[in-house]
C-alpha cells in the first residue's frame, strides 16, 4: 500500500492580520510547518499554533523563511550560505522554545518560499541549511523539494529527508516549481490538483509545463492553508487519497 504525509504551512498570521483557517485545516493534515517570525508569524501566533497542532495530534515542524514580512518570504535575497545557516538555526531555536513549554518534540524543518526554492538549486546554500538542521538536532527530518539539492544535501550529511511534492503547483521539466511570477504557476482546478498528487505518489512522475514526464519521489505532499478554498481542498485531497488506497500518516510515530 502506498503511504504519504500531508503537510501544510501554518502560523502565518501576524499581529491583528489573520491568515487561514487553522482549526479546520488541522483536521486533514499530518504535519504542520509553523512560521517562525521572519516571513510571517509572531510569538503569540507561534504559541497558539503549536498548541492547536498538539490538540489535533499533528506533528510539528519549523518553517524558516527569509526576513521579508512585506514580501511574505517569496522574494529572493542575495544571502550567503553562512547567513542562511544562521537564519535557520535562529528560527528553529525560536520554535523549539515553544515546543519545550508543551514538552513536545520537533518532527521536521521545511524552509519557506524563496529560501526553499533557492536551496533547491543552490548546492552551497542547501548544504548550509542541512548543516544548520543537523547541528541543532540530527534527528530532525529535513523537508525539501523532491530530487533537489536540498534533499541531496540532507542525505549526504546523514539527515532523514522527506521529498516533498506540491498539490497546487505546476512543474518545469527540470523538476523545479514554476515561478509564482508566471500566470501558470498555480493549479486552481481541484480535480487536476488531486489527480497530479495521485499520479506522483503511485507512478512516481509528474507532467511538466513542457508536457514531459519528470521522475519524482513523493514522501510528503504540501497543501497551502492560505488559499480561497483551502479547507475544501484539504478535505477533498485527503478523501481522494484514501479512496485511492493511499495511506495518510506522519513520517514518525
TrEMBL record:
Catalytic activity of the protein: 5-oxo-L-proline + ATP + 2 H2O = L-glutamate + ADP + phosphate + H(+)
Any one GO biological process: carbohydrate metabolic process
Keywords tagged on the record: ATP-binding, Hydrolase, Nucleotide-binding
An example molecular function term from Gene Ontology annotations: ATP binding
Keyword Nucleotide-binding: yes
Family: Belongs to the LamB/PxpA family.
HAMAP family from the UniProt entry: PxpA
Protein name, UniProt field: 5-oxoprolinase subunit A
Lineage of source species: Bacteria, Bacillati, Bacillota, Bacilli, Bacillales
Amino acid at each position: 500500500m502506498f503511504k504519504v504525509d500531508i503537510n501544510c504551512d501554518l502560523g502565518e498570521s501576524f499581529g491583528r492580520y489573520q491568515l487561514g483557517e487553522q482549526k479546520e485545516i488541522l483536521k486533514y493534515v499530518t504535519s504542520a510547518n509553523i512560521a517562525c517570525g521572519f516571513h510571517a508569524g509572531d510569538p503569540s501566533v507561534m504559541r497558539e499554533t503549536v498548541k492547536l497542532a498538539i490538540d489535533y495530534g499533528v506533528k510539528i515542524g519549523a518553517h524558516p523563511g527569509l526576513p521579508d514580512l512585506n514580501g511574505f518570504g517569496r522574494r529572493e535575497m542575495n544571502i550567503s550560505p553562512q547567513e542562511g545557516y544562521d537564519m535557520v538555526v535562529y528560527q528553529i531555536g525560536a520554535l523549539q522554545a515553544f515546543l519545550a513549554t508543551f514538552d513536545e518534540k520537533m518532527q521536521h524543518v521545511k524552509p519557506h518560499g524563496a529560501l526553499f526554492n533557492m536551496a533547491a538549486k543552490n548546492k552551497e546554500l542547501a548544504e548550509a541549511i542541512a548543516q544548520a538542521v543537523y547541528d541543532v538536532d540530527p534527528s530532525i527530518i529535513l523537508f525539501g523539494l523532491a530530487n533537489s539539492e536540498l534533499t541531496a544535501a540532507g542525505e549526504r550529511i546523514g539527515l532523514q529527508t522527506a521529498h516533498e511534492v506540491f498539490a497546487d503547483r505546476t512543474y518545469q521539466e527540470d523538476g523545479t516549481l514554476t515561478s509564482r511570477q508566471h500566470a501558470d504557476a498555480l493549479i486552481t482546478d481541484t480535480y487536476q490538483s488531486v489527480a497530479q498528487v495521485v499520479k506522483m505518489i503511485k507512478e512516481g512522475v509528474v507532467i511538466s509545463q513542457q508536457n514531459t514526464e519528470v521522475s519524482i519521489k513523493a514522501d510528503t505532499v504540501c497543501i497551502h492553508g492560505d488559499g480561497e478554498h483551502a479547507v475544501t481542498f484539504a478535505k477533498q485531497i485527503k478523501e481522494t487519497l484514501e479512496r485511492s488506497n493511499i495511506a495518510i500518516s506522519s513520517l514518525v510515530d
